[in-house]
């Protein structure tokens, strides 16, 4: 199909990938990504998928395995090793009416396409007065925990969250990976879709058998509590749960919130939680300085100051290049998170 032809969009509410009703299934996070891509390729002929080695090989983490064989080389195809070209092509396709999903092999490699993202994709709707949009998705594995060293483990989400016109998403469960990716592909704005690579096969969960999306900008309360709000996103979420379990054993009620998306982020749900508990601990694995959670902390102190019983505490990576072998030292694991919670509780 060319960009000027009428698109064929098949709505599949209440149906599984093959159009048959199915019940809920337990899958891992990368399977959620693969299923979302397959279902959107089948649903909308405007969707195209491309990047380095995404075709016959199925991508560096096999997220696109089998999709070229199923949908053909004109819909799922490999590109040269040029991130600037990948992003530039995606912008052009989006403006001309397609729904491109571009894969960048690692979030660390997005630098060569940075200008195309922030100067073109993010500005398209605004600079054209709404005459054009850039409905593209850039998928990329992000974060550490796989001993990838400093060129394969970074968390650059704050760069993109700082740019008006972009949406920034990072799921932590198979349900969210599938539902948020489908919502991103169907939306009208450019979305940077970070996938926490250490959770690709570690995070397992149930997904419905029917067609569904998850609204971008809505946080999830993973557990309720009245003593402290523990807030994070992406790869750190299992560690938040472990820290909350340890504190629960001591009688502390921790409310765990998964932001799921950074732009937009769910101020209402975060503020409601902090106003209830009076304490907030914010966790991410990006370096501490100019960390996105600094914005969350500012909004909490600005809008919920009278509810605070202790200063907002942040647990993050360190202001160093990501190390080769000290993953467990660099990442904010359960012990560091629990210790930060105790500081807030004892203030």
Structural notes for this entry:
There is one protein chain. The chain is α/β, with parallel strands linked by helices and 347 residues long. Strand 6, helix 7 and strand 7 form a beta-alpha-beta unit. Helix 8 crosses helix 12. The strands form 3 sheets. Strands 3-2-4-5-7-6-12 form a 7-stranded mixed beta sheet, sandwiched between helices. A 5-stranded mixed beta sheet has the order 9-11-10-13-14, with helices on both faces. Strands 1-8 form a two-stranded antiparallel sheet. The N terminus is likely disordered. It has 12 helices and 14 strands. 33% of the residues lie in helices and 19% in strands.
Radius of gyration: 20 Å
Regions with little confidence, pLDDT below 50 for 5+ residues: 1-5, 12-20
Q: Which strands sit side by side, in order, in the main sheet?
A: 3-2-4-5-7-6-12
Give the oligomeric state of the chains in this entry, treating copies of one chain as homo and distinct chains as hetero. single chain
Average pLDDT confidence is 94
Helix and strand sequence: EHEHEHEHHEHEHEEEEHEEHEHEHH
Count of distinct strands: 14
For the report, how would you describe the main beta sheet?
7 strands, mixed
Strand content: 15-25%
Tell me the overall shape. Answer: globular
Distance between the termini: 62 Å
Helix tally equals: 12
Helices and strands: which structural class?
Answer: alpha/beta
Helix content: 25-40%
